[in-house]
Amino acid sequence: MKQPLMITQAHIERYDVSGPRYTSYPTADRFVEAFDASAYVKALEQRNISAWTQPLSVYVHVPFCESLCFYCACNKIVTKRHEQGAQYLNYLKREIDLHLSRFDHPQTVNQCHLGGGTPTFLNDDELSALMQMLKQVFVFEAAGEYSIEIDPRTVDTQRLQHLRDLGFNRLSFGVQDFDADVQQAVHRVQSYKQVASLMQDARNMGFQSMNADLIYGLPKQTPVTFRQTISQIITLRPDRIALYGYAHLPSRFKPQRRILHEDLPNAVDKIQMLSEAIQQLISAGYVYIGMDHFALPEDALAIAKQQGRLHRNFQGYSTMADQDILALGVSAIGKMGSTYSQNAKTIEEYYDYLDQGQLPIVRGLALNRDDLIRRAVIMAIMCHGELSYESIELSYMINFKEYFKTELQQIEEKQKQGLVYLEHDGIKVTDMGWFFVRAIAMVFDRYLQLDANRARFSKIL
Ligand code: SF4
Q1: Tens of pLDDT, residues 9-23
Q2: Residue nearest ligand 1's atom 7 by CA
Q3: How many Å lie between the centroid of ligand 1 and the Cα of residue 320?
């Protein structure tokens, strides 16, 4: 797809509305407590009958962090007590056993992601034990994607080699910003040199893909400093870059109360940082994937986008087809068939369930027919940038134009704004529309349309 020449500040100002990131539809805030472990087990039994040959994706949440980043909105436990890692592994083992006892067949895994928190809070032996635990009970495909989030402050060359030896082939570096003042203001100090050296090591070790997370809108950031950060990351040439907007919601996320309001960039500067970052990355050869993500043209994600094979899951865009996700660890979210489920959010509750020999699932959702139809529509827009009415009509036996009469009126507005082409048999996202694809997807979100209170979501950009 041809990249747009310029996303201006005016565009960003115009389409900057609140909205979810659609790593799932319905979004996790719609999960209900009525969906519990027994509902999950039913979904798992269904997999035993109809989908057990499909490879699983496994997500493991490691909640611990050694120090607190002030912008943090994740579910984490800040502690220096590393002995907590061993205890957590014991509980993960119990949780894995509870899942396994319900599978009727051996399970193949082609995707495994360790997220957090800080997965590298665990020491080398603990990470070995965790991977061994998983590999003992699941068949890991040789060509699978095995990734881990890296806090550069917690790894060195030796640790990276250990991760490579354990079979990880993808790394995601939490970079955020290279400016020293910004790093101090968010309480996350890690030098450019440190990150550059780790990325070079990782490349030499044969990691297939490296991602760098960046955040704009942080305290002490200015368009000048952020331009420099983007230039620096471009010199490191990670295969993928995620560029997130910081949403300052101190009433919801306690760590953010440590950020001084007067240190935050104003809305105009924030927009300038985003538009310039987009220009810099695209000029440097990165392809815009959609929803905050960029990739080098030769990266699997960029190729998948070009070939219309992109998918989306809780980790963002993926090349792997929509598959069941087995979620392990406190607060982890999984997907089984047409259901989503989430584990207990506090470690005490999580341990408590497992002490009682119960799966720690506390909420979730069984998707109804309307959810499934809308999920297919939203994912087609977000992953392929186009939607064929006929494909939805054939899959769900509906008349698209009748079913989505109101939504299509709103889509007409998006057409006037230059975000989509409305054709007689479908919708196509324009080059500019890719940058605001969330706003287009939101039109089809029934929950959001019914819900006037959008303030709880982070800013769209
Ligand atoms: S941003 Fe990441 S590393 Fe920092 S406190 Fe939050 S979870 Fe931990």
Answers
A1: 777 777 766 688 898
A2: 117
A3: 27
